Amino acid sequence: MNDFIEELKWRGMLQDMTPGLEKHLASGKRKAYIGFDPTAPSLTIGNYVPIMLLTFLQRAGHQPVVLMGGATGRIGDPSGKDAERQLKSYEELDRNLRFQEEQFRRLLNFEEGENRALLVNNFDFYKDMNVLDFLREVGKTLTINYMMSKESVKKRIDSGLSFTEFSYQLLQGYDFYKLYKEHGITIQMGGSDQWGNITAGTEFIRKKTGGKGEAYALTAPLLTKADGKKFGKSEKGNIWLDPALTSPYQFFQFWINADDRDLPKYLRYFSLKSREEIEALEQEHRDNPRAIKAALAEELTSRIHGEEAFRAAQSVSALLFNHRLKREELLQMPEEVLAQVAEEIPCFPISQERLSANPSLADLLTETGITPSKSDVRRNIQAIALNKQKYSSHEDTIGPDQLLHGRYILVEKGKKNKFMLKA
Question: Which of 119, 146, 194, 326 shows a CA-CA span of 20 to 30 A to 376?
Fold first, then answer.
């Protein structure tokens, strides 16, 4: 059994833990959980930090538990929020929860071994509980003074905090107690912003068991980027783990375009390579950070989206950024790669009928809106290529035989401007 705490320490993933946790983990196989509220349509790479905590825990021989917030997602966690969050409809939350459950089952091992992951929905704890039961069972356990001392409450008390959000730590504390009582789960983990909520759970268990219960807390630092921007976002917004929301190519490019200063942190947080392998990789490519980015992008894209999606993302990147790509290589690219390229660059429709009329190059590009005028095509003829083929005149004709896979024509205007025509 690997030393989980030592693994987190060298990876820089340990912020705080309650006393006695190391001894508790060393004395046998333990169960630890992290809660996830289904307030978004998919998990993001921001969520992937706590997922990696569960992954390293499982690799150390312990049992990871995913607690889906079917109940707490209906309330909203005030931690890290400057204002009251907008509540989602029950239908949207349930839809998000079902989708995220499927994602978790692909990201953790739920199938094999004694330490296979467990998934629990906290809605089951509350669905048959009325408000009087809640106040007697849960509300009597923690004092107002204790709850007011939490940072997530103190930061919002002047700007406004509803009783709904104030009660969130009661729900999270009761969650831990139910998991402790019904599943033997003794450890709750999460991001450092969750320390207050998590320790509310350890206090809840202490009160409920008369001080006899063993319950522990562990948090990881919030992952930040060197440029000060929030991790998990790009200029286009969130980086989702759902390929329908963030394409494998965009996911791949997020890591390729990472700030060099963030690489040591990203490797330790997200790579499953050992310490020796990571340090050897850094040493080998200490003067070539792009090689490290390529290795990390390959590992993560393959893990999240599969080998085929990784290879397609590589091909899309080559088509868009490799200026030495030859026409023969383009002609051999699979249709799904060209379809992905069409999602990433400006794409214009063209009908088979229009191509059958063999329009001139100038007519084709102006009619589709790629160029503003025929004179622009004439002036820039040396910089224009269709499917990596140059033309000597703006009057050269284009026919349906130019379509790749019967659907696509790649148009380039210089090295940086690329467009796709799609029939």
Answer: 326
